[in-house]
Design brief:
single chain; alpha+beta; Tumour Suppressor Smad4; about 25% helix
């Protein structure tokens, strides 16, 4: 049975019709946004990871969750029947969901942004006025702050105004590169600014703001996929701040671009492989250099794995939630906490 997802009520009606069917499986045909939408409704209807498990037929641009679950990078019509036949044999796996809450704080003195990035200096852009709502209260893939979110917002706005130019994944990627070129100045002046002056990062009660040195994007990962198939965390376990990688490492680590010695308050912390069902987030910092090199196999600066994350924004900031960009116009505290799990399907070809 096929349901066209016109609105949330359509999803709920479909679930109600098949609620009594044993061994029910669901395949969502869409991008990460559509998948997240359906999973959110499943979490509302079912208690804990008891929902019918979900497979994916990728129709979006990035399709990061589809890649992670081995359902493919992009849609191929000749694979549709194969995908449907693979669903019964796929492995069930719990996927963490994370709740995002913004809490207002007393106005603080705005940091000096004269040498900062354009997206912090140009706070009166009409574009920012149109995207000041948190797009969702939950995420399943990732959340990010900084330069990547600024580029994503320009891309998102352009696509909304001229959808005919964004008619295929290939065209979308070309247009994304074009939007990135608007921020050439911020990339060129990257050595003059980083995120430390604009936010505090507290992981499981530990202040790790010092780790943002030379970082222009902060990424909070739930899955090992970001920005159309990259993995900023990397695939091997390591002990921070040890920069060696194992001989099985297949995502090379880029040396952190820190000048001088690391802050003495840092303490080595064991970093494990990512697991989207371990109730932990991976926190990664990306420099302007990292943002380009993660697309050819490098990864960024691992900051921490944690179960509770607090980010204190000292100034207005650009952010994105599962690929949906938005503008935070004032100083706020961003609290990220675990909010249960939903069941998905992961296909193992071997």
């Amino acid at each position: 049975q096929i349901f066209l997802l016109d609105n949330s009520q359509t999803i709920l009606q479909a679930l109600e019709i098949y609620r009594g069917v044993a061994n029910l499986h669901i395949c969502v045909c869409g991008g990460d946004g559509s998948v997240g939408w359906v999973l959110a409704k499943l979490a509302e209807v079912y208690d804990g990871p008891t929902n019918p498990p979900v497979a994916i037929c990728p129709l979006g641009t990035g399709n990061d969750l589809s890649r992670v679950l081995n359902w493919g990078r992009e849609y191929e019509s000749k694979r549709l029947l194969t995908t449907l036949l693979q669903i019964p044999a796929a492995e069930k796996a719990p996927l963490d969901r994370w709740h995002v809450e913004l809490e207002s704080i007393a106005e603080r003195q705005t940091p000096d942004v004269l040498n900062g990035p354009s997206f912090l200096r140009e706070t009166n852009r009409l574009l920012y006025e149109n995207f000041q709502m948190l797009p969702n209260s939950y995420f399943i893939n990732y959340m990010s702050f900084g330069l990547d979110a600024a580029i994503a917002l320009d891309f998102h706005d352009h696509r909304a105004r001229k959808p005919s130019k964004f008619s295929s994944p290939w065209k979308n990627k070309v247009m994304y590169i074009n939007e990135s070129l608007k921020y050439v100045g911020d990339f060129a002046k990257a050595s003059r600014w980083d995120l430390r002056g604009y936010m505090k990062v507290i992981c499981d009660g530990v202040n790790l703001t010092y780790s943002l040195r030379n970082c222009h994007t902060l990424v909070i990962l739930n899955i090992p996929g970001y920005a159309s198939g990259t993995n900023p965390w990397g695939k091997s376990s390591t002990t921070f701040p040890n920069k060696e990688f194992s001989e099985n490492e297949d995502a090379f680590e880029l040396e952190t671009l820190h000048d001088g010695k690391r802050d003495e308050s840092s303490t080595p912390t064991t970093m494990d492989r990512q697991d989207f069902g371990d109730k932990k987030l991976e926190i990664v910092g990306l420099s302007a250099t990292h943002m380009g090199l993660i697309h050819v196999g490098f990864h960024g600066q691992r900051i921490a794995q944690c179960s509770h994350l607090t980010i204190e924004l000292q100034t207005p900031m650009l952010a994105q939630l599962d690929g949906e960009p938005f503008y935070i116009p004032a100083s706020v505290v961003v609290k990220v906490t675990h909010s249960g799990q939903v069941m998905v399907l992961r296909y193992n070809s071997v």
